Amino acid sequence: xxxxxxxxxxxxxxxxxxxxxxxxxxxxxxxxxxxxxxxxxxxxxxxxxxxxxxxxxxxxxxxxxxxxxxxxxxxxxxxxxxxxxxxxxxxxxxxxxxxxxxxxxxxxxxxxxxxxxxxxxxxxxxxxxxxxxxxxxxxxxxxxxxxxxxx
Length: 151
What we know:
The chain is mainly α. It has helices at 3-14, 18-22, 26-43, 45-53, 57-63, 66-69, 72-86, 97-112, 124-131, 133-150, and strands at residues 117-118, 121-122. It has a two-stranded antiparallel sheet.
């Protein structure tokens, strides 16, 4: 991954839409930014993050609007993929699979976050979905490589 593509990826990780702005895609960047703020506010995500960092997991679960927050992983990872693609990365047809698998698994983690305990610990709507990022990337890369062998 060249420096330009990596920079767009990192800015998209910081906030959806920033990578698009750096690529000169101002309409898409503004759309992603507006959607990010809308979902963030409607889902109470900043409050949930703060509570999770203070390890107030039960309170974080109570404050989470899951109907809105479930949109966030898809927006977040689509924004990253789009910024990388527009910067010249991901030229093969299967480049989106790591992003898709990660968005899917993070959403699954979010769905089960109110009840699922790992090693007896309830991780809630921030920490459990974060744990699903690495398996999502790994499955996506494996699936991408298998498809590239087949195709």
